[in-house]
From TrEMBL:
Residues 23-106 form the Zinc-ribbon domain. This is Zinc-ribbon 15. It comes from the Eukaryota. PANTHER family: DOUBLE ZINC RIBBON PROTEIN MJ0416 (PTHR36718:SF1), OS05G0435400 PROTEIN (PTHR36718).
Amino acid sequence: MFFFFVGGVEQQVSQVLKKEAGRCIRCGSLADLVEYEKVLKLFFVPAWRWPGKGPLMHCDNCSLFFPQSFSLPPNSEPTSASLDHLRCRYCDRAVDSEFKFCPFCGSAL
């Protein structure tokens, strides 16, 4: 007898507390301060929800949840030095903006 389980736990935004409260640490776009909830899904159907511990920042562009203490200021603009180099979202190393793949870990930029 085999038991095949398809499901998992994911985070979802339950309420936006403040729009554009900071910048994303991964992609640099504007991020919102949100309350979130964790959702257990069984066969892609939400089965159980419970609230998160505290507010987090959420980026709509790359769907990243991260603590408010790591957020960049909302009015900060990229500098000319940061335009020449990007950061890999997987290994967090500086990569030349002309590359399409990270030369260190091989992931797509």
